[in-house]
Structure formats: structure tokens, C-alpha cells
């Protein structure tokens, strides 16, 4: 059976860039201009009816700090309806796993 469910979830990404490590060494007090550094773009598939919104988190990446040079982090909270196929053969004792398809698009803008 095809069903849809509302879900609220976080996507947390961490990544390392040697160029970012160099930037932090040369300009330790500055934040990078993310137009010039790689950062992944999150795409969410299997959204039901296009009903997806970003309800919290960061709009731009942040540095992980001095203890992790060259590492960046991006955390975003989403809310939406997702469609998936469920077997109801064992109803009312069935269990379901709602799959949310998260894709990362590699691009710097």
C-alpha cells in the first residue's frame, strides 16, 4: 500500500577541506565566504506533493572550531510529507520503515 506520513527530521553534515584548513591558519578570526569554498547542497526526494519546508538549523555552514581545523558542519531541520510503500499483510502487527531519500549535490553555490 502506498501511504504518506508527516515527518520532522534533522540532516547533519560534516566535511573536511584542506583549503579551509589553510584559510583558518592564515585568518583565524575570520569566517569564510562560502561562495568561495565547497559546501554540499541538500536535496530531499520522495516528498509527497512538494510539501517540504526548512524549519530550523543553519542556512550556511559553520566551522567546527580550532580543535578540528579544516572541518565544517551544516545542520538543517526539515518538515514534510513523505510517500513510501508499506506492506499491510501482518496488520495490526506490521512494522514499517519510512525511507527518506537524502541526496547531496556537490556544488559551491
Please, could you describe this protein's structure?
- The chain is mainly β.
- The protein is 8% helix and 50% strand.
- It is built from one helix and six strands.
- It has one helix at 18-26, and strands at residues 2-16, 39-44, 47-57, 62-63, 71-85, 102-107.
- It is elongated.
- The protein starts with a strand and ends with a strand.
- The mean pLDDT is 85.
**Could you tell me the mean pLDDT?**
85
Question: Element order, helices and strands?
Answer: EHEEEEE
Number of strands: 6
Relative helix content: under 10%
H/I helix tally: 1
Nearest-angstrom radius of gyration? 19 Å
The low-confidence parts are: none
- Give the biggest beta sheet: 4 strands, antiparallel
The fraction of residues in strands falls at over 45%
Q: How far is it from the N-terminal to the C-terminal residue, by CA?
A: 39 Å
Structural class: mainly beta
What overall geometry do the principal axes of the alpha carbons give?
elongated
Summarize the structure.
The protein has about 110 residues and is mainly beta. Helices cover about 10% and strands about 50% of the residues. Strands 1, 3, 4 and 5 form a four-stranded antiparallel sheet that branches. A two-stranded antiparallel sheet has the order 2-6.
Amino acid at each position: 500500500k502506498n501511504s504518506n506520513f508527516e515527518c520532522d527530521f534533522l540532516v547533519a553534515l560534516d566535511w573536511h577541506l584542506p583549503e579551509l584548513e589553510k584559510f583558518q591558519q592564515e585568518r583565524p578570526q575570520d569566517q569564510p565566504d562560502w561562495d568561495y569554498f565547497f559546501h554540499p547542497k541538500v536535496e530531499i526526494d520522495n516528498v509527497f506533493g512538494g510539501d517540504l519546508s526548512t524549519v530550523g538549523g543553519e542556512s550556511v555552514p559553520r566551522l567546527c572550531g580550532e580543535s578540528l581545523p579544516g572541518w565544517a558542519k551544516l545542520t538543517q531541520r526539515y518538515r514534510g510529507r513523505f510517500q513510501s510503500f508499506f506492506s499491510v499483510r501482518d496488520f495490526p502487527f506490521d512494522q514499517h520503515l519510512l525511507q527518506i531519500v537524502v541526496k547531496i549535490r556537490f556544488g559551491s553555490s
